[in-house]
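Weekend entry, working from home. Most of the wet-lab plans are on hold until the incubator is repaired, so I used the time to fold the two sequences that have been sitting in the queue since the last round of cloning. Logging both here for the record. First:
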Amino acid sequence: MTDALASSGLVVVDKPAGMTSHDVVARLRRIFSTRRVGHAGTLDPMATGVLVVGIERGTKFLAHLVATTKSYDATIRLGAATTTDDAEGEVLSEVGAASISNDDALAGMAALTGDIMQRPASVSAIKIDGKRAHERVRAGEDIEIPARPVTVSRFEALAYRRPDHYLDIDVTVDCSSGTYIRSLARDLGESLGVGGHLTALRRTAVGPFLLADALTLDELEATPRLSLSLDEALARSYPVLHVTDEEAAALAMGKWLEPRGLDGTHAAVAPDGRSVALIREKGKRLATVFVARPSTM
C-alpha cells in the first residue's frame, strides 16, 4: 500500500553563509516541487549549519518541535564592538585587547555560563509591538530589548589567536533555545572593557538534530530527499509509546485512550513502526496533541 506521507518529514540543511532562512525555504520549495515548506528557527545570514526544515505534513509538526537546546561553534573577536554585535555591523569602538590574557577571557566566559540574564541583540528577530527588532533598527529606531533568562550550559574556548591588536577566540557553546551567541560575544567584550563581536557562527545541533543529519543544498539539488521521515522525526523528538493497531486506529481519528501514567508528550508508534500521533495525558484522558497520520489520509 502506498504511504500517503512518504514525501512528508524533515530536511536538516547545512545552511551556507550569505543566505537567509527564507532563501533556503524558497530553494527547497523549488527542489521538492511544493509550497508546503517551512523552517524551525531562524539562522542569521552570516551563520552556517543546522537549519531544520519541514516538508509537506512535516510543516505541521514544526509547531510541536520543541528544541530546548542548541549547540554552536563560533569565533569571538575581542577589541571592537559593532552595531550588530557581529562582523556585518559598523564598528562602534575599538580598544586594543593586547592586555587581555587568555585567563582573563576564560574568567569572563565562566561568568556568562549557567543561568544568566541576557539582553538580545537589537537586530534580533524578536517582535516588539508586532514588529521585529531588526526591522525597527533598520527604520532608524533606537531600541533596547529587556534582558531575559537563558541557560548557557557550556561555554568553552577551543583556540586563541592574536591578529593585530585583537584577541580572537574559537568557542563552543551549548545553550537553551533563545540564547544569542552574538550577545555572549558582546557581553564578554563589555565585561573585559574592550568590546566584542562575533566573526563566525556555525550551528552544530538543534535539539536531537545534528550536523551528521544535515545535507547541503547542492546535495539536495542533485538528489532531493528527506533527512528524516515524519515517523523518524516524531520518534527522535519524543519518548516512544508503542500502541496496538486498534489504539493506533483510534488515535488516527483523534480519539483518546485510557491514561497510563505518562509524564509529558510521547510519540505513539504502531506495530508497523509508523508514528501515528503525539499524545499527552490530560486529566483522565490520554489525548492527541498532534495527529501525524489522520484516518482521512
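Second, folded right after the first finished:
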Amino acid sequence: MKTAIFYGSTTGTTEMVAGKVGELLGAEVLSATDIDRVENYDFVIFATSTWGMGELQDDWYGALDKLKDKNLSGKRVGLIGIGDQFGFGDTFVDGIGIIYDEIKDKGIELVGKTSTDGYSFNDSRAVVDGEFVGLVIDENNQSELTDERIKTWIEMVK
C-alpha cells in the first residue's frame, strides 16, 4: 500500500513526529505544501499542530483549499495532532478536528481513532463520539509517552 504523510510544521515538532511515523510505516514524508500529490497514495496521513486559539498550522490553509478539489474517495486516512493540553486546554489539537471536518464527507475510510484517556484538557474539535479522530501527541507535557503512542497507533493502522 502506497503511503504518505503530509505535515505542516512551524517549530519542527510535527515534522519530527511525522518522520518517526513515516520511518516505522515505510511512508513517504511530505510537506502539506505538496498536497497536490495526495491522489498518488492509497493511505494518507495528515499531521498538524494547532496554533493560536485553535487554528491550523499555516501550511495547512492552502493545502485544505487544494484538498477540496481532490478525490479522496476510498482512501484510508489517518490524522496526527500535535498540541499542548495544559497551555491550550480549550482548543487542544483542534487542528486535526478542522482537517477532519473538511474531509469526513469525501468518502474516506478514517483509521486510527484513539482514546482521550491519559490527557487532561477542557475541549477539542478533534474529539468525535468520545474519541480523538487520530493520534494525539503532546511533546510539551508528555514527551516521554510519544514513542509508545506512535508505536501503538502504527499497529492499529497497519
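Plan for Monday: verify the second prediction. The beta strands are 3-7, 28-31, 43-51, 55-56, 76-82, 109-110, 114-115, 127-128, 131-132, 135-137.
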